[in-house]
């Protein structure tokens, strides 16, 4: 494949050891195809279970920690020589029993290689 076939790599991460391995592979693909890399993290929001002070505090702390970890990830990837790295955190709602998802996914293109890791 050449640059015109793969323009963007999307890596969804939960910061697990398995996601670290997927990150290495996504970085390899990004270098190989001279593509852009988007790293996305979707923390589960406890607000869907109630909005008391404890869940709000938990969510704020989890978001700050995720933002820090995403910034660290971006810095690490840039130190490895990747120049086009975007990180994004999207607060989501877990899937309902019907299978419906309430997270608005970023607009993705057909020329994108996706790497999703299961915890």
Tell me what the structure shows.
The protein is of the alpha/beta class and 119 residues long. The protein has one domain (8-116): Rossmann fold (3-Layer(aba) Sandwich), CATH 3.40.50. Helices cover 37% and strands 18% of the residues. It has helices spanning 17-33, 53-79, and strands spanning 8-12, 36-41, 85-89, 112-116. The model is unreliable at 97-105 and 110-119 (pLDDT under 50).
- The arrangement of helices and strands along the chain is EHEHEE
For the biggest β-sheet, the strand order reads: 3-2-1-4
Arithmetic mean pLDDT = 77
The Cα radius of gyration reads 16 Å
- What would CATH call the architecture? 3-Layer(aba) Sandwich
The CATH class label is: Alpha Beta
Distance between the termini: 30 Å
Class by SSE composition: alpha/beta
Q: Which band does the percent of strand residues land in? A: 15-25%
Q: What's the CATH H-level superfamily name?
A: HUPs
Number of strands: 4
How many domains comprise the coordinates?
Answer: 1
> What is the 3D shape?
elongated
């Amino acid at each position: 494949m050449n640059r015109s076939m793969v323009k963007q790599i999307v890596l969804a991460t939960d910061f697990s050891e398995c996601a670290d391995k997927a990150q290495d592979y996504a970085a390899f693909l990004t270098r190989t195809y001279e593509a852009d890399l988007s790293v996305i993290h979707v923390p589960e929001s406890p607000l869907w279970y109630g909005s008391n002070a404890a869940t709000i505090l938990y969510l704020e702390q989890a978001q700050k920690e995720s933002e820090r970890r995403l910034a660290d990830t971006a810095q690490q990837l840039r130190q490895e020589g990747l120049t086009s790295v975007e990180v994004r955190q999207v607060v989501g709602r877990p899937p309902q029993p019907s299978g419906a998802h309430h997270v608005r996914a970023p607009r993705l293109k057909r020329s994108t290689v996706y790497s999703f890791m299961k915890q």
